[in-house]
Amino acid sequence: MKLRLQHLxxxxxxxxxxxxxxxxxxxxxxxxxxxxxxxxxxxxxIRIGAAYxxxxxxxxxxxxxxxxxxxxxAFDIAIGVSDxxxxxxxxxxxxxxxxxEPTRHGTxxxxxxxxxxxxxxxxxxxxxxxxxxVKFPNADDDKQLGTDMTDLWFGGxxxxxxxxxxxLLDLQIGILGRRGFEATDQDDVLMCGVGAxxxxxxxxxxxxxxRGTTLSRFGNDRATFNAGIAAETRxxxxxxxxxxxxxxxxxxxxxxTGLTFEFPFGRSRRDRL
Length: 273
Description:
Elements (H helix, E strand, L loop, with lengths): L2 H14 L27 E14 L8 E17 L2 E14 L5 E4 L3 E9 L7 E9 L15 E12 L2 E12 L10 E13 L4 E11 L7 E11 L4 E9 L7 E11 L10
């Protein structure tokens, strides 16, 4: 999965973003499970953050060795390209310490995701969005910062709201490339997450979730329990979260924090849970 697949996915991402309007909204920064509500049209959200992961087994790591790493700084950008679609970009600097090996540094892989909000929420049915994304193999594989392969994911995100509580469901198919192997050796996995977010006040949101990857043929199954809190201030939104691994390949512990700035000033994020 090399250059042609990257061009195809980017073309689909651009195509998704010019489809007709469905609905609008926003995401809860207290959760890693995404919201089906896109960033408002014309708004640019920039999150500058940091994350620490301890005791995680790398993808396709057959020897079972663990590693710890920092993603700092980490940049996430959400662009509201239409009333019902957004494009998300993710990029970070990695400081990696593999088990019994020296620390190494470098850039991570660039991730590009497009989200199209297809169905509004009703009293019976949840809000639904379709998502497709690609991870580019620009991280240094010799330093174990990436797999030197293109990954692809696509699926659906659903949300049902009950007063101040939102229930989120994320179901996606992931296609993970494996370096040095034929295309038939790619790992096709189910990437899923279920979570809940609650607005305690007009400016404070808490959330928890379980996220995981399953149906892997190469030992890439993993799951984590995450909890987080997001506080909106006059100038930005601060989020803090922590996670605990639920499987042997999962990280023993993870922590994340970030600041999100909105440009231009649109609807408040607290109104878009």
